Amino acid sequence: MDSLKTKRVGDTSDIVLQKLLEAIVNRSFAPGEPIRETQLAKDWGVSRTPVREAVRSAAAMGLMEIRHNQRPLVKDFSQKDLVKLTDVRAVIELLAFDSSIDVLIGSKKVKKLLDISIKLQNFGPDDPFTEKALELDTNLHRLWVDSCENQFIVLAFESLWTFIRILQRAAANDLNRAVIALSEHIAILQAIYKGDIHAARKLLDEHLRSSTPILQELLKEKKETPK
Hints:
Blueprint: H1 9-25, H2 37-44, H3 48-60, E1 64-65, E2 73-74, H4 79-104, H5 108-120, H6 129-147, H7 151-172, H8 175-194, H9 197-210, H10 212-224
Antiparallel strand pairs: 1-2
């Protein structure tokens, strides 16, 4: 990777943290895997200090675990964690939805996402469906958050964002779930565009909670797979 040594210390720490978060999201580090700070520093062309700071920041976010006299570990989701995260996420997103719905009804932003979603349904087996679906999922859920004009809702959502991305990536690996999610996205967007607020809100709530059982099953299968 490109060396980061020419950056200022503060900039370097931020860059290293982003690299670490991306590695966690993409599962470059397996949950429970010890992290060698010296090796990361070498791989990323930095001193150990910004790596150590990034690990501490990730631990403060709840993504890593630091134990005395042991290497830091990437934390894993338990089934209870998934339920709790879904509950909190639903509260935040529904608040954002309620705050932004008036400006979203019939808007160009909603129409654009709806058109993209419908086109994505026609993707063939050789098309990059998963990456496009992930991008759409991100843009969809950020739509009402970015439009709500409530900084506290935005801050609350941002605090969960890395966790949400981890779940997005896990769910996208299940093609059947990704296809179902796409149809749910279309239904939500159609309801918003038409101004059917009650239906759109209900569909969003159901959509946010529908992936939890699938993710729990994936988690169960992973833990039952012998190493």
